[in-house]
Write a structure and sequence with these properties.
Elements lengths: L17 E5 L2 E5 L5 E2 L1 E7 L6 E7 L21 E5 L2 E8 L4 E7 L10 E2 L9 E4 L5 E5 L3 E5 L11 E2 L11 E8 L2 E8 L7 E7 L7 E2 L6 E2 L8 E10 L5 E8 L14 E10 L2 E4 L22 E2 L12 E2 L7 E2 L7 E4 L11 E6 L5 E8 L4 E9 L2 E8 L2 E8 L2 E9 L5 E9 L11 E8 L5 E8 L5 H4 L6 E8 L1 E11 L1
Antiparallel strand pairs: 1-2, 2-4, 3-24, 4-5, 6-7, 7-8, 8-9, 10-11, 11-12, 12-13, 14-15, 15-16, 16-17, 16-18, 19-20, 20-21, 21-22, 23-37, 25-26, 26-37, 27-36, 28-33, 28-37, 29-30, 29-36, 30-31, 31-32, 33-34, 34-35
The protein binds (Z)-L-Arabinonhydroximo-1,4-lactone.
(Z)-L-Arabinonhydroximo-1,4-lactone binds next to strand 14 and strand 19.
Length: about 500
């Protein structure tokens, strides 16, 4: 058994992970905010190699994200559990519908339509069942409410419970577990930024009173030079051999000071041991110890998506809503077709389809046919922070939107017809000056012989969460601002 695995185990914008195990299979869900479809669902046999099965909320009857939904609005942190032979997913849609509960017999879907939880107020809902069959819903704050998970009705008053360490802000991401003779309440506290941490308390009853762990926080990287920061929002899971593990979110800031993370909050894995009835979280070192069971072999992800399937791969996301009219692989078989809605990436209802940037350096290429339209290839953080190479008839433009500023950085004439667009992201080298940004983004086109003609190289700090704000990370994808855009293939390659 080689020594360990590489963190993050699910790179790119996959925050707020929640995990459960059924036999030898693990399933994990993450928050997804304004993305449609929402709540990606992953499967693994070793907690290290994860395959996306689908997205739990993939139809408008489950996920309503009106155009007024701001970036980082929509779906906050979920909890995924398995109980009574089915999967349960509870999540908050801060765009209006509040806390919603979904069920499925197959985590790959289909998932049910939502059961609203109108009496549950707060984010980061958790589900736990006690020996009497009572279902406790616990939310940030920290407050517990007994609910009927079939109807969504509350079955008693909300009760405030242990809410973290004195003086620490934002007690959130609560998870309640029955482990041995105790009920454990795990929370995040300190806020999801550099002060983030994980703390825990225990009781002989699910509703307390809880005794805090004397060694809280059981995990934090606050104030350290650890390359993984903002560690928090954890969920515990036991392996088939009795070993314990914690999935959690973290970020990988790059550049000088204060450091900028561009991939969003990613999912990490840490080993856990138990001492005196308290969990001790091992290091997230670049190679923490591997799980004791065989690591499943994993094929490298395909570079090329050729859009030959009837539907997009579940790792492709759009913004707030995707309809067959605006985004389809059936209008021109073997091509992705985007029919414009909004007039630019500055608008919430632009026709967009993309995937999460999952590597600090990567190269993305796509053969696009602008047909009757105007659109292109974008590196996007949100509507106010994006860089794109856009084709409009016989002109290619490199555009930048940074906060209130939008500019055409440069342009070039191109021959009419299909053209390969390219975005290259290059992470900053270590040993940089304190003001170096995290990376650069180079945009351009390829000539028919594959020669790259860069149009602009831009500082990536302006497409970071520290600059843009919010909870999300970069997407790289295709958009149509006017008319129709087609794409024959899309290559994403770590570099
Ligand atoms: C989430 C909260 C948090 O609901 O940030 O990391 C919020 N912590 O638990 C959005 O991800």
């Amino acid at each position: 058994m080689d020594g360990g695995f590489t963190n993050p185990v699910i790179p790119g914008f996959h925050p707020d992970p929640s995990v459960c195990r059924v036999g030898g299979d693990y399933y994990l869900a993450c928050s997804s905010f304004e993305l449609f479809p929402g709540i990606p669902i992953f499967h693994s046999r070793d907690l290290v190699h994860w395959e996306q099965l689908g997205n739990a909320l993939d139809r408008p009857s489950q996920l309503r994200l009106p155009p007024t939904t701001p970036a980082s609005g929509g779906l906050y942190a979920p909890t995924l559990r398995h109980h009574d032979g089915r999967f349960w997913l509870v999540v908050t849609n801060v765009a209006g519908d509040g806390n919603l509960l979904f069920t499925a017999t197959d985590p790959a879907g289909p998932w049910s339509d939502p059961v609203p939880l109108p009496g549950v107020h707060g984010i980061d809902p958790d589900l736990a069942w006690d020996e009497d069959g009572t279902c406790w819903c616990t939310v940030a704050g920290v407050t517990q409410i007994p609910i009927d998970p079939h109807t969504g009705n509350t079955q008693g008053p909300p009760r405030r419970t242990w809410s973290g360490s004195p003086g620490m802000k934002a007690p959130e991401a609560p998870h309640l577990y029955r482990i041995g003779g105790y009920w454990y309440l795990l929370i995040a506290e300190g806020g999801t930024e550099r002060g983030h941490g994980v703390s825990i308390a225990r009781s002989t009853a699910p509703t307390g009173p809880f005794e805090p762990c004397p060694d809280n926080p059981i995990l934090t990287h606050r104030g350290t030079d650890h390359p993984i920061q903002n560690t928090g929002h954890g969920d515990l899971v036991q392996g088939p051999d009795g070993s314990w593990w914690l999935v959690l979110l973290g970020v990988r800031p790059r550049g000088g000071t204060p450091g900028w993370h561009v991939l969003g909050r990613e999912t990490f894995l840490a080993p856990v041991t138990w001492v005196d009835g308290w969990p001790v979280v091992g290091d997230l070192a670049p190679r923490p110890p591997a799980p004791p069971w065989p690591l499943q072999p994993t094929a490298p992800a395909p570079v090329r998506d050729d859009f030959d399937a009837d539907a997009l791969h579940p790792n492709w996301v759009s913004l707030r809503l995707r309809t067959a009219e605006t985004c389809t692989t059936r209008q021109r078989p073997g091509w992705l077709t985007l029919n414009a809605r909004g007039g630019s990436l500055d608008e919430p209802d632009v026709s967009f389809a993309g995937r999460r940037q999952q590597h600090l350096s990567c190269r993305v290429r796509s053969l696009v046919d602008p047909a009757t339209g105007r659109g292109g290839l974008a590196v996007r953080l949100d509507e106010d922070h994006h860089y794109e190479i856009e084709v409009d008839g016989s002109v290619a433009r490199a555009l930048a939107r940074i906060g209130p500023l939008r500019t055409v950085v440069s342009s070039q004439d191109i021959p009419p017809g299909p053209v390969v667009l390219r975005a290259e992201v290059d992470v900053a080298e270590a040993g940089h000056c304190p003001r170096t940004g995290p990376d650069t983004v180079t945009l351009g086109t390829e000539s028919p012989d594959g020669t790259f003609a860069p149009l602009a190289t831009l500082d990536g700090r302006y497409l970071s969460t520290e600059v843009a704000g919010g909870f999300t990370g970069r997407l790289i994808g295709l958009y149509a601002a006017e008319g129709t855009m087609h794409a024959d293939w899309f290559d994403y390659e770590p570099s």
